[in-house]
Amino acid sequence: xxxxxxxxxxxxxxEIRQRLTRNYRYTVDLIQATIEEGIERDTFHSVDPExxxxxxxxxxxGARSTDLTLDTTTVRETTMDGIEHVVxxxxxxxxxxxGC
Length: 100
Hints:
Layout (H helix, E strand, L loop, with lengths): L1 H8 L4 H27 L8 H21 L5 H17 L9
Helix pairs in contact: 2-3, 3-4
């Protein structure tokens, strides 16, 4: 809940906005680096690593916010299941496909 409160203050507080932006960039960059490494090792299909990482972070963040602000409790779990499906079906290169 505290993160949601900080996000509400961020448009009006440059320091909070900078810290949240730094945290967001760190997370996207970490996921992006993982995807890039997977592509280099032919573990993942060739995708746009930054766009894919941004999608994952935005989906998780949105789901978390939904569960915190609405009368729902399963959106985050459902989103994580969807991300797992995207990773296993669309991102992970199968052994018989030779990578990309």
